[in-house]
Amino acid sequence: MRRLDGRDGGGQPLRTALALSLVTGEPFEMTNVRGNRSTPGLKAQHVACVSVAAAVSNAEVEGGDVGSSRLRFSPGDLRTDPVEAAVGTAGSATLVCETVLPAAVALDDPLSLAVTGGTDVRWSPPADYLRYVKRPLCSAFGVDFGVSVPRRGFYPAGGGALSLRIEPAEPTPLALSRRADPDELRVYSVASESLADAAVADRQVEGVRDALAEAGVELPVHAAVSSVESDSPGSVVVVVARGGEDERDGDGSGSLVAGFDAYGERGTPAEAVGSRAAASFLDWFGGDAPVDRHMADQLLVWVALAGGRVRIPAVTDHVRTNLDVIRAFGYDVTLRAGDDSDGDGGAGSGAVVESDGGR
After folding, report:
1. How high is the pLDDT of residue 339?
2. Spatial separation of the C-alpha atoms in residues 222 and 218, rounded to whole Å
3. Is residue 290 part of a domain?
């Protein structure tokens, strides 16, 4: 039984613990779940993550209720018949999918997952980030999954639907030490049909273009604008930097996919929403990490499982607490802050995470 303290982290340590428990078959107990949050304990979206992980692994669960600060999770054998989950209101459906995705390394057959809830809500990856950033990046190191979004769900009602099909995987070591130069930006801008008359989705794209122009960044920008049905009005924009697919040279550079997003808020002009996503891109563009800050957190478990090396933009609290959980499961993962052994280094180098993929 792995003993974990969740006091210093939010939901990410819990999701990582669930993922590694699925992969290893080892039970764990986490106390002080989200202990340093203003409302500690499990929230509805965390309960959904626990419920789906339990359904996938035929697990025994103690303390898996809303508000619980202690969770005991004991997995059984993985199943591959379809699993359905309802997060409730606008709890994040994408984070539920993130929890189960690492189980790919332990699957013998594909696993299908259908989740209802919030597909595009704050403090979690938008559905288009999962589709257009996470999916191609994972595919590059041998983890393939299909994802579709039959219906969008915004805050507060949720009501969205997301479907995931995870293929069994034998991932190769990650090689993301250097950033390739972006060849283009793709902007995915989505808004509810109720916001169509205000041209919110189009104006979000305008905000991205204007911010890039003001910064003097001259890259082709290809935009996809969508108007969608949803239970609550809402909008989201995802900026995807792509490039270098045909330039891999064996030193960890090459194919590039990084994503930057922003959500619409009442009282915030749509142009400002686009500008906010562009600002995140520009901040990353000034460094040399091949992945964005949010992907850095998500890739740590894959470095542990598959081995390899990833340069990340910064050592955040999320990175530290996530590594604590990974190491608690026995994985040997090294973090070197400010590492510049690849050459240029400097203040923008962030850090390097590496592992041989063993325990």
Report:
1. 58
2. 13
3. no
C-alpha to C-alpha distance for 280 and 25, rounded to whole angstroms? 38
Computed over every residue of the chain, the mean pLDDT equals: 91
Burial class (CB in 10 A: 0-12, 13-18, 19+), 5: middle
Annotated binding residue at 249? no
Residue 46 is labelled as binding a ligand: no
The count of structural domains within the chain is 3
Domain boundary among 132, 150, 171: 171
Tell me the residue type at 170. E
Which among 265, 146, 137, 262 has a CA at the least distance from the CA of 211? 262
Helices and strands (H, E) in the chain, number of each type: 9, 16
178 lies in some domain? no
Q: What is the DSSP letter of 313?
A: S
Instruction: Dump pLDDT digits (tens) for 308-347.
Output: 999 999 998 889 999 999 999 999 999 998 755 443 333 3
193 shares a domain with 113: no
46 catalytic per annotation:
no
Taking the CA atoms of 294, 292, 93 and 355 in sequence, report the sign of the dihedral they define. Answer: negative
Look at the pTM and tell me if it is higher than 0.90.
yes
Domain that holds residue 31: 2-171
Q: Is 296 annotated as a binding residue?
A: yes
Extended beta strands in 1-56, E state: 2-5, 28-31
Return the sign of the alpha-carbon dihedral for residues 148, 150, 156, 157: negative
326: which 2 tokens?
A: 């990974």
Residue with tokens 């199943």: 79
In a domain, 132, yes or no: yes
In contact, 339 and 349? CB cutoff 8 Å: yes
Tokens of 22: 């699925």
Any domain includes 79? yes
- Measure the CA dihedral 262/268/269/270, to 10°: 30
Contact (CB, 8 A) for 300 and 333: yes
Catalytic residue among 154, 264, 318, 328: 318
